[in-house]
Amino acid sequence: MTLVLEVDDWPGHLPGQHVDVRLTAADGYTATRSYSVAAPQDGDRIELTVQRVPDGEVSPFLADGLAVGDGVRLRGPVGGWFVWRPGQPDPVLLVAGGSGVVPLMSMLRARAAAGGPPFRLVYSVRSSDDVLYREDLATLAGTPGVEVHLVHTRKAPEGEVRPAGRLGAADLDAPSRDGAAGAPAEPTCYVCGPTGFVESAANLLVGLGHAPDRIRTERFGPSGP
């Protein structure tokens, strides 16, 4: 579920940043969760994409219980390392696992709006039913200099050349400066997803020769109150 929030006097944000959302129950109990911003700056509006966690305290309410006009408390924007700034000259390799695609989607949308260097998204999902932003990604994949590569880990679509399986080194071709995959390049790499996925992907990138200081990671896992 993608929520569009209007925030008075929003100071602006960079693609890749997140906000802390705080909810307070009638009995005074509070819970705070962090959510990546899913779209680049748009005045006082921000977009958050929330994945429902069946036994979660916050995500079911945000996805199913929040009505138009309801208010929530926000803190942010947060983060200054895992960001892409329009104007960065180097190619970009984005690696996402599941809902880790959300902050990377903000980067892709910002690049589509402002132009920029070649981008390549490698997006790991269990099956085609788990792809977030399916239509938007199809549109972005038709943008010059942008490539989208889906990695299906459990079930591949009929006719897919790549069989289902975990992300591997062969999936992580870098974008070249002319937009073609596989050519020599020194991209900035952004990796986001569950902790185990991020560690595995980062190790694969280092093994392929990417400098560790050019690999930026953002990870998530189970949250407490």
TrEMBL record:
SUPFAM superfamilies named in the record: Ferredoxin reductase-like, C-terminal NADP-linked domain, Riboflavin synthase domain-like
Domain FAD-binding FR-type: 1-84
Keywords: 2Fe-2S, Iron, Iron-sulfur, Metal-binding
One Pfam family in the UniProt entry: NAD_binding_1
Annotated CDD domains: FNR_iron_sulfur_binding_3
Domain of life: Bacteria
Region annotation Disordered: where it falls in the sequence: 157-184
Entry keyword Zinc: no
Needed co-factor(s): FAD
UniProt keyword annotation of tRNA processing present: no
PANTHER family (alphabetical): NADH OXIDOREDUCTASE HCR (PTHR47354), PROTEIN RFBI (PTHR47354:SF5)
Protein name: Ferredoxin reductase
Protein species of origin: Terrabacter lapilli
